[in-house]
Design goal:
Length: 126
Amino acid sequence: MEFIFLGVLLLIPVVYAILTVSQLQAAAFAAVGAADHAAKVFVAADSEAGARASAANAAALAVRNMGLPAGSEEVAIRCSGPCLDPGSRVTVTVTVRVALPLLPSGAGADVGRASASATHRVERFG
């Protein structure tokens, strides 16, 4: 009886720790994919306003595809001059907040953040 009680008592925190680490890893993968896709979408757009909106949508979609809640990402876009001029570089940084697993979405218990950047160049001959 003691073995079963102690086994369950020790197993639950270990399983929760594994779930937390897997959420952190998913957020890291989501941030890398979201930054890369957002930068690609940004440099392919026709207008800067449309590019910013498309990049934000691409980042949100990439984060949701990894099973993370919508709105947990922050997108920052930096350009090396005028954003859509041929030859300019666009750097997109995506930061994803990671919440503790199995808690309601508004609980406010964040484990940490995963961040990634991607840089793409606007084509010179487009």
